[in-house]
Amino acid sequence: MPLAIAELLLGASMVVFxxxxxxxxxxxxxxxVQLTIAHVGLSVxxxxxxPDVRKPxxxxxxxxxxxxxxxxxxxxPQLVQLALGIGVGAITVLGMTVRGSRAFYASMEQLTEx
Length: 114
Known about the structure:
mainly alpha, 0% strand, elongated
């Protein structure tokens, strides 16, 4: 439960700061990068701390899809989901910190100051 609450708060914060970053607030973009990194860290922590939760979910997915558990390694779907989350987080951070992106956000900030 505490991990779910942390994930909810991080997600809500990311939505708020993403909105602020799109209107040209430089401090919001910096905070959004930090929140994205924290979200990736929380996802990894959740993966490490909850193997007992993933096992029944894996069994349910295999049963619903009529797959033999020998066909798909245990935990593979959740591991792929974690890897995709890390990849999206990394692309987000890179996209917001690359020079061209910084120039775009700087120009947006100048437009909103007028």
